[in-house]
Design a protein that fits this description.
Layout lengths: L8 E3 L6 H5 L4 E6 L4 E6 L9 H10 L2 H9 L4 E2 L22 H10 L7 E7 L3 H15 L4 E7 L1 H9 L5 E6 L7 H8 L6 H4 L5 H12 L3 H18 L2 E6 L2 E6 L2 E2 L10 H4 L3 E2 L3
Parallel strand pairs: 5-6, 5-7
Antiparallel strand pairs: 1-9, 2-9, 3-7, 3-8, 4-8, 10-11
Length: 279
């Protein structure tokens, strides 16, 4: 559609085709800083994921750099905190779990799964970047003894299956609607906050209390310390595997001038000033 000039801008072209599109005359992919966090949901109704050692093992078993390279052609950042990259009170002190299969095997044995287990990963069919990520996850977990069966569904079906409390692993992502961290903390770290801690069903009393305190606190310095603590708890407890922070991607024709997207995903203001040349 874009190449034939039937449209001027396309949203979210496949992350692993960015470089190819950029090489097409008259087209480019514009990348904008975002609040998107890609993660793998771990439903604790599935017995192995109730085990902290197993959840930590998954973090060491997955190479985030491989996901960034295969799914996004390097146009993403390996993830650590569950909060969006560099948003207000984002904890820069947290670093992505290192890729360490040997450490993963040790943790699996410590958690009572020395020979691994079998699970499934829900993906969205047609999501090229997501399918690439699934290939990496399946291969790398197999290396530590975990068999992953990939189940692909159209978007609404995939989300319904991931949301019903009878899932196992699922590819998900988060974007913020506001710059304040209360939104993501409520949905991701408070199992009573409306999203069952990103449908992991993980509950931590200290995290819940800090989420509520952070929402009510007016002093920014105190709030920062609270949100730093929340991020540290989620990082250590790892109720879901944060894989990366990916930018917003838009394929844009060279005849479009002035298109811009904010980190919150809004582009309404640029529509008032951009220009479109004849084409």
């Amino acid at each position: 559609m874009l190449e034939s000039k039937k449209v001027d801008v396309i949203e979210n072209p496949p992350g692993n085709l960015v470089n190819q599109i950029d090489k097409t005359p008259g087209l480019s992919v514009q990348l904008f800083p975002s609040t998107r966090v890609d993660f793998i949901q771990l439903d604790q109704h599935f017995k192995p994921f109730k085990n902290l050692y197993v959840r930590q093992a998954l973090n060491y078993a997955i190479d985030r750099n491989a996901i960034v390279k295969l799914a996004y052609q390097g146009h993403a950042i390996p993830g650590a905190s569950f909060m969006p990259y560099r948003m207000k009170f984002w904890n820069a002190g947290l670093k992505p779990y290192p890729y360490d299969p040997a450490k993963a095997k040790q943790l699996l044995a410590k958690g009572g799964y020395p020979h691994g287990f079998t699970t499934f990963l829900i993906t969205v069919s047609g999501d090229v970047a997501g399918q690439a990520e699934a290939v990496v996850v399946k291969s790398e977990l197999a290396a530590v003894g975990i068999t992953v069966n990939i189940q692909s569904y159209e978007l609404l079906t995939a989300y319904a299956k991931e949301d019903n409390g009878h899932s196992q692993m699922g590819e998900r992502y988060w974007t913020n609607d506001i710059i304040d961290p209360d939104e993501v903390a409520t949905f991701g770290a408070d199992c009573h906050g409306g999203a069952n801690a990103f449908n992991s069903y993980w509950c931590d009393t200290q995290a819940i209390n800090l989420v509520n305190q952070g929402r009510a606190e007016l002093n920014d310095a105190k709030r920062q310390q609270m949100y730093y603590q929340i991020q540290q708890i989620v990082y250590q407890q790892t109720p879901f595997v944060v894989t990366d922070y990916s930018p917003y991607r838009y394929g844009v024709g060279s005849w479009v001038k002035g298109f811009h997207v904010t980190p919150l995903g809004n582009y309404d203001l640029s529509l008032e000033t951009l220009t479109v040349d004849q084409h």
